[in-house]
Amino acid sequence: MHANHGRRDRRPVFRRAAMLFAALAVVAAGCADVAGDTPASAATRAAAVKTFLPNAKFDYQISTGYTPASGVKVVSRDVKDTPAGLGYDICYINGFQTQPDEKGSDGQPLEGTSKWFADDASRKQLLLPNPTPDYPTATENQQYSKPYYVDPGWPDEIIFDLRTDAKRAALAAIVGKQIQACADKKFDAVEVDNLDSFTRAYSNLSDRKLAREGKEPKEGAPRLMSKSDALAFATLLIQKAHGLNLAIAQKNTAELADEGKAAGFDLAVVEECGSTSECGDYAEVWGGNWVDIEYSASGFSKACTAVKSKISVVQRDKNVTKPGTDGYVYNEC
């Protein structure tokens, strides 16, 4: 999910296979310190992270940073921003899919954007391919949604291919640079959007068509990637964060809350548990170590009723804008 938007719950055959895996091996070498962690060392590093502030007033500022309302202690901001410094700072990054295109001051695509991946012979092979390039995975931005599997609701964001150890290691090295940037800026934790990306990558064309139209395929619809793929990749990111003394938040995916916590996530950043009636599921696993963002008045009311005494629940506008902007919303219960 791009930092300018709220998330509503975030191949072609290559003949030179030997060149692909050689290239991936080089990138994967940068992850050797992560992949080589033992459970004991990972646990030790997790113990060194800053403890979350349960039920502390929260603000979600992933579009742009601004002075929070009085009493706010926990703030989430984009990696390109700086910490608020009010108690506990969470750093937002895209971890399971690309960022929408954006250029740097030199006119070149910024690292981690769709174009940065797609324009490079080795990096584009880390993107999940569209099994039917003649039928784009989204109605918009078909330069990406024809060859690659974009997130149906976010056609500027291409889902990462997490199906092999080599690709997971290569991607962890790339995403790891963003995690490093969070640590360098002195954030306390990182939220990695979005663990459930794999759930929107459907194997069958009929299901892809439904998703493209904004409809939900039947429960249990086969997918191109598995939860095991997602959790294996998440484990690499968890180890990277803990190695930098950063806590790391699971982003959404109530059905994997137990497994996410077991993998090493320290807290959760959740969107719309009121709207999806999943607040109790998160509370059962995370206690007070999570926050919830709602984008509708009805979802906000439901979430406040369900978990008001346990965590901070906020209502934000879907574009996560700053005060003074048309459409800005911030409520907290």
From TrEMBL:
Q: Give the superkingdom in one word.
A: Bacteria
The family database entries (Gene3D superfamilies) matched by this protein are listed as: Aldolase class I
- Keyword Amino-acid biosynthesis (UniProt): no
Indicate the secretion signal residues. 1-28
Where in this chain does the record put each Glycoside-hydrolase family GH114 TIM-barrel domain?
Answer: 57-321
Q: Where are the transmembrane segments?
A: none
Q: Does the keyword Signal apply?
A: yes
Keywords of this protein's UniProt record, alphabetized? Signal
Name of the protein this chain belongs to: Glycoside-hydrolase family GH114 TIM-barrel domain-containing protein
Organism source for this protein? Cryptosporangium arvum DSM 44712
